[in-house]
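Chain A, query sequence.
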Amino acid sequence: MSIAMSVRFCAFVAVLKLTALAAMAHPIAQGAMEVLICADYIDIVARVSTEEVFVAEAFGDKTYEKTRLDEVWRRHGEYLLSHLEIAVDGFPLTGRVAEIRSPGKTTPGDRVGYNLRFDIPQNRNYPNAISLRQNVLNEFIFAPGNRWEASYIVRVFQQDRLLGEGLLFTSRVPLAFACDWNGVAPSTFHVNQWTMAVAFVRHGIQHILGGYDHLLFIAALVLAVASVWDLVKVVTAFTIAHTLTLTLAALDIFRLSDRVVEPMIAASIVFVALQNVFSPSRSRGWLRLAVAFGFGLFHGLGFAGGLLTAMQGMAGLAILVAIAAFSFGVELGHQLVAVPLFGLMTITRSWHSRASEPEWILRLVSRVGSSAICVAGLVYLVAALR
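Chain A, predicted structure.
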């Protein structure tokens, strides 16, 4: 690695040390894994985000003065290995880092590739029951009561036979599966599409509930609605927009750089919040629907980031199932925020229905809440523009 790249990385880590909580809107780093089970070893091919690597570097007790990027990738390989547990028939395996692939070379985008090998002792029979657990990044605090989390979408092979794909692997969701060494032909094995769909629904929900930028935008939209019909219209406009661009990005038809998408998502938070504060009369009607739809297009491209890595290597029906299930999970995550917030606003309105100015308290709540959301959006915007 060049000296210039090392200097840039060290500067990045220094900034991350000081502004980690403000600069990152997602306490979930997303990646993918392929597990290859053979008679005498298990290989794991992991594609992890540079976000995961930098979080481990920034919050860990390390010195950065002379750190080179290749050393950072190597250290994280050892870190990943130490936070991953594999057992065969209840017997824990010891692994090693067999290969590291830097981002932008043999791995796409901002992913670091690791080949981890776990040898099965020669005195043991063919592996039957396999279990995987991980606690990557869990020792680091994103915010009070909210730890960092690394999630992976997993494909499993027994030699040349696909056992399963679209499996969600987190610290709270370990994996367990059984092998069959009786010579079952690959073509006779059926991949459980329902299991994969459930995993991607959960993946979509986690992406939203762990993404404070998307939640802030939804909250700003909801704070301005006055009726159930207003809520339905604005949420529908946002849903149509983000589903459209999420699908186009997942199918590799249209994409934008994160350097454009992330600042636009942050700007959407600021714009909607300021509109609530200074022009509440325009926070409803066709203008608000246009705003929700227009910025929703950029949010959809942001959602796609949680799906693209997980879909690598999939084909045919599996891709359609992944897109549909992930989109449904994203929408469920939105509703888990929008519905309770709207319900709280409705209850507040009913409490003050007999007052001489029943809307006064609602205007105050909307403006105070929108002001706080605006401040948070500005923090994200500054971080996204760096």
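The radius of gyration is 23 Å. The chain has ten helices and twelve strands.
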